[in-house]
Specification:
single chain; about 180 residues; mainly alpha; 9 helices; about 60% helix; elongated
Length: about 180
């Protein structure tokens, strides 16, 4: 039998036995079993790893974290999420509210202005792509006016629409679009 330096508290095996009965998730069950097998039978990490199917170092890490943090070490941490967020989603919504009125009034919003305000708010430099991602995340999109020729003549365009050969031939007719 191995000689562990630190022993679990009294009653740890009984607590783990109760948790084993309640647990439905396989991975969480294995984590609880790692603690239970050491507390109840004083098995080595190698033996526990063979029983449970974890690597030996995983078992040792779990034992160490359980001694340090208690039962919170058994909880699985969720993967993914916003690990490097500058602001919470709610703060982002509040931040963008100040720019909403300008956009609703038809004023042009430039990314550089939003970027400067964001940098001032969070007190650090921000990449331009981060501002674009922020706007995209909250459903903002770029609306640009339709391009037109600077020397266009609206009267000539209207007369062309009314008198062109194609427009007059197609009036009231249906066209079959190719497949």
């Amino acid at each position: 039998m191995p000689g562990y330096h630190n022993q679990f508290q009294e009653g740890t095996a009984n607590k783990m036995a109760e948790l084993i009965k309640q647990e439905t998730d396989a991975t969480s069950l294995k984590r609880i079993q790692c603690i239970y097998l050491r507390a109840k039978f004083n098995y080595s990490a190698v033996t526990i790893s063979e029983i449970v199917g974890f690597h030996k170092q995983t078992v040792l890490n779990l034992h160490s974290r359980y001694l340090k943090d208690g039962e919170s070490a058994l909880e699985l941490k969720s993967k993914g999420g916003r690990m490097r967020e500058n602001m919470s989603i709610e703060d982002e919504v509040k931040f963008l509210k100040s720019f909403e009125q300008n956009g609703d009034d038809g004023q042009i919003l430039e990314i550089s202005g939003i970027r400067e305000a964001l940098e001032k708010k969070i007190n650090k430099k921000v990449a331009k792509s981060s501002v674009y991602e922020l706007l995209h995340r909250h459903g903002w999109r770029k609306i640009a006016p339709r391009a037109y020729h600077p020397k266009r003549d609206l009267e000539k365009q209207d007369t062309f629409k009314k008198t062109s050969l194609i427009a007059s031939n197609l009036q009231g007719k249906w066209l079959k679009v190719r497949d």
